[in-house]
Amino acid sequence: MSKDLTKVRNIGISAHIDSGKTTLTERILYYTKRIHAIHEVRGKDGVGAKMDSMELEKERGITIQSAATYCSWKGNDINIIDTPGHVDFTVEVERALRVLDGAVLVLCSVGGVQSQSITVNRQMTRYNVPRLAFINKCDRTGANPEKVTDQLREKLDLNAHLMQIPIGLESDLNGMVDLVTMKAVYFDGDNGDIIREEAVPAEMLADAEEKREALLEEISMFSEELMEALLEEGDVDPALIYDAVRVGTLALDFTPVFIGSAYKNKGVQLLLDAVDQFLPCPTDVTNNALDLKDEENEFPVTNDPADPLIMLAFKLEDGRYGQLTYVRTYQGQLNKGDTVFNSRTGKKVKIGRLCRMHSNEMVEIDSCGSGDIVALFGVDCASGDTFTSDEISCSMTSMHVPAPVISLAVIPADNKAQVNMSKALNRFTKEDPTFKTYVDHETGETIISGMGELHLEVYIERMKREYAASVDVGAPQVAYRETISQRAEFNYTHKKQTGGSGQFGRVSGFMEPLEEKEYEFNDKIVGGVIPREFIGSCDKGFQKSLKKGSLCGAPITGVACTINDGSYHAVDSSDVAFQLASVGAFKEGYLKAKPVIMEPIMKVAVEGPNEFQGAVMGSINQRRGMIIGTTEEGSYSVIEAEVPLSEMFGYSTTLRSLTQGKAEFTMEFATFKAVPKSVSEELIKAYQDERKKA
Prior knowledge:
By secondary structure, this protein is of the alpha+beta class.
């Protein structure tokens, strides 16, 4: 790997489902000579794309796990992470964007900005990742790059401008006009290897000049030199244009848009040029670490290989030969055989094997430095751990992990399946922070939780295939929440007197609904009526009470607890006494505060032919859904709605039968809302019946 960090690019390829991310990555690997033959995602040769190495990925034609690779283009080293498009695997996108410096947002020239494009863009914004947009599939019927660019501005609020315009569209896509160099670019040969530049076709010249003028006017805001050159009305040096676009892109104030068709081998090499020219190198991006000795002190990492080592473990894969840990190095250098320090556990770890990943292939290396994305073999750690040299104690800021919204009970067929299932669950929970598992103490069942039906379906299938664990699946469960709807007072005394020292504590105050946050504790005690050492015990007691509500047994959220009075006993008061007093006070106040059950509401987008629009809307209304809007794109329509998750189980089968298999839907978590009274009564009754059985 080059030591010149200005020649390093760490990029992610992200998009909505089926926009062509993996196909694009396959072409990038081919043109950079990392692979010597092109295979398709759903190819008839049975090989499948390089980056989809899992058997399930090849079968389903989707990306399930993000995969890393590396290549070189015109002297620059590029580390690439190909991420999934399904919202169920959103943590794969989160952790990739956390460690990447730049990203390519891929869009379908027909579908445009779709629901998951919005989610991915939000994730890029969360981690301040500069991005390029690539409008793929310009060879498809209905392709319209200009409309998609408008959607980038309207729906994603990006300052997006085309850097190229197509020469022909749909089946007539021949090449593109580069608006910077004002040349027509064509891609010849069986796989588009030969790039041919010619003059802009006469019939396109006026349109190209008009679009170039609009582009230059926009990007001149980022360069005084370019603005001066435009005012002089002479020929503008392309280098000035490239510099201005780079400044705007790095500042997240401009999004250059490129076009092409990865499947038809058109436009990929120009996108690679753009990655080199416009996306940041490691030194262009500021990453902060937290000093563990002084937690208020954040400091920027230096990217200097001579400084102490700092690297972040962002993804784990636990295979049969041990754990593979993907790490991003932020400063310093790591050599095979070095001993590093895990800042979370405080343990020292010796690095035995160091690899660079090419999808599922490992290439052994002796050392890596700042800006590298590599893998460590046989190191025991968790996702999000920071590794440092001994002389520095710090932690990189972690990634956002969304909470699971759906649960299933898994029942092993026999003892052997039980053992294998346990091994599988241990591995999956370690690898995936959004996949949770626990045993329900009332029913004795093992419950798995995740981001959606597909997410859990994939893990159950992997259990059966990779671990030979024969399991049955129980009915899906929804992650309900309970909350309060009004303010309520409490005044509870805990008193217990049985031989020896007793327990005494009185807690008084009120609870009230809290928006935005899950829980808040307010200490308004004056005059020492509750000693300072027991204030924390009150907080602990309230937090214990949040774990299980009394309506349907769901966790309680959105509650602010305030204590303003109480009393203690010089001998009988203790940490335990005040914890129990707070638990009792919470129960007393909770019942007075008119608790309600909240359910997860999903943002659903259904895309299908116009002829089925009425039937689809009817199916959403039947599921207590609220339609937010519909848009028609030629013969297709997109219906956006908010629907309770509990009503979405089995919807894919219903939708297929309603639309002759021609429609598809995506959904992602939107918010929690109170359930209707009839549903609330059913949930309360079911919970009470369950408790009676237990």
